[in-house]
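SEQUENCE AND FOLD
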Amino acid sequence: MYAAVVARGSTHTLTLVNRSTGKVVRTLASARAYDWQQPFAYVDVAPDGSVWAVVRKTSPNTYLPYASTLVHYTGGKAVNVLPYVTSVRLSPNGKQLAITVLSPDGNKDGKGTQALRIATPSGKVLRTLSATQFPVDKNGDPTVEVGGLRVSGWLNPSTLIVGDGCCDGGSVALASASRPSPATKWPTLFGDGSTRAIGTIGDKTVLVARNRWKGDGQKVPLSVVGVEAVTMSAARPRGSVVAYFPDENPSQDAYVDRFVARAKAKPLAIGTKRYPYKGTGKVVAAYL
């Protein structure tokens, strides 16, 4: 099965879909979407068919930085597990969750916290692997760009694939799942804000998609000319380009599945048309 977010007008519905037939197995939840504010993100389907999802409260006019909750859809119920979670990935053995959080200023010191953590499926935080503080205004909202940290997957039982990005800058890095370490020490592949992990090759290599640019921003304006697939590892964090898709306005559906298939990678991300869908509405996001 796979999870699909289906749009019917401004309503988005999170569904569980049979990969072979495209038939909807279960409808999990529905919520309103507003422009760039999407109610369902970073969905992970567990081997037992339950679904972990970051569910965001959306607003037509207001930015809500801390309005996300980790929800576990299991046994016909929706269980709220942890607040402020911004991404989630279940460990290969199903016993731990890798999560990122963006939490508000709880002690009134004028700072919020962005962190990478390991938790149990019941929501008990086992350890914080990395944490940074950010300044907030009088309303508690961040005064700097923050919130781009996300868990893309587990490379192996002891290594996490961590993405970070907003606007002009982005990266994919490898972090220990067992011991704290500063992000500055993580093996990292850099790119723009669209840079993200889309697959794994074995237990040491990550397949990354990032935009390719031309120009110098001075004499020649910068512009996107396509997307390249890059393999990176702890031993070679700068990576090697293994495929290229020329397109000035690249869509994920055009290249993700193609790159994953060409590299013979295990997918971390899929296009919306990777598997069939026989229900009503349009699939706007798909997750494994």
The first helix runs from residue 252 to 263. Helices lie at 252-263.
